[in-house]
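INFO  loader      accepted 1 record
INFO  loader      residues=259
INFO  predictor   begin
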Amino acid sequence: MRRVICLIVGLLTGLVLHAQTWKQNRIEVYLGLPVNHYFGDIGNSANTNVITSIKDVRIRALRGGFGGGVGFKVNPFISAQASLNTGFLGNTDDGSYYSSRDYRFSTFYSELTVKGIYYIISESHQNYYYRIMDFRGGLRHINKPFSVYVFAGAGGLFFSATPNDKLLSRTPPPGFTKPEVDDSKYFALVIPAGVGVKYEFYPRFQLGVELGARYVTTDYLDAFSSVYSSHNDMYYTINFNVYYKIPYQKLLKRSFWQF
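INFO  predictor   done
INFO  writer      dumping tokens
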């Protein structure tokens, strides 16, 4: 009976510590290195189905950038995050289905988004479990270093596309009046969605990898929208991030504001 009572007390204590721990780490900041891959009207296959899109993944279409953001934990499984990524998109017809056109472009962008995050496997400071078989050696907690989450959000994309001379000199096919080349576009709505993994390698510090698709409301990320195009441009981003959990309760103490 005494052991049962001790076990119940231990479990309740663990639950209390669980609640207190995540609340002490509600705010996190991060820095990241995004790697982008564009999908659109330049450098890709004639078709736009999933199978041909996989074939369109090319090293020459990868472009880098820099980013960062801040997150706030609503509860142990849900977070909100604001982020800013800036970098490049680009591609070329060289080696693609339309290699004879020799079109190419480079786009500089800044992406400001707000995302909701749901943890499928919650973060390490939350993952404690107890086994009755461990009771003789005292109640033990096991800290899982990995967490897995999915995310979705919305935001704005500011961009500036620079097409090459051959693309700028393109004229619409006979019978079409749609302006195919337009490098004056500079803003679009963006919808990010994807999945991420974090690894806690030190208290308050995490490494993370995040893969997400970016759906945009424009077909001019490359300054080119073919008269035969029926889809907007899009791009994928792999983010390599470093996270730091801010002990925000200490920051809000009165002593912090005293000089």
